[in-house]
Fold:
Amino acid sequence: MQQLIKFLSQYTKKQIESEFPDNIYLSEQEWSHITEKALLRLSKIFKHINNKYYSQNFENSFNYLHSDHYAMYIYLLSQEANLTLNNENYANRFFYFNKIKHSIDIYHKVKLPEIFLFVHPVGTVIGNGSFDNFLAIYQGVTVGGKVGEFKYPQIGKDVTLYANSTLIGDCKIGDHVIIGANTLLIEQEVPSGHLAIGQHPNNKILPFEQKQDEKLFHF
Structure:
């Protein structure tokens, strides 16, 4: 792991300093520290993902040229810059860098669960909400509140948000739920073990049980 930490801290440092050439720097020690923290968190995630590009052997499966891996890593760096270094300036840089490189908008103060997965998340915007473990987020997903209100989605365990799905306002999503592609939910409840499809207000909420070999996560 130490070789990966050393390489990746230097690699990301060059990217950030090139993208934001304003002569505001982190020390080598700070870079190494937040890189290690982010990679340790990411290695725990990899152990739970049921996909050929992820494995128990994190150092052999993590690939900085795999954009899903790297987008998750940058999100975790943004959190560590804020939480570990108390450096909101650099936390904002990582947040902005993720928007530039991966077209994903997820602020460092948005608290994703310990185990989550980005799947080619281009055009995804994740705002405030509560999120439980084993959350998968695909491209074009939107999660957030209604304009002028402060009620946000509550998402349970083992939830998949497929392409272009949207959760707005006081949505209550149970465990083991699929939100289908192009689904719009506004202040809607989806019980555990169900599939949600369709556009508000004409959504369909259907009982659903995912096959074991189709699951994205190992529990």
User: Anything to note?
Assistant: The longest strand covers residues 194-197.
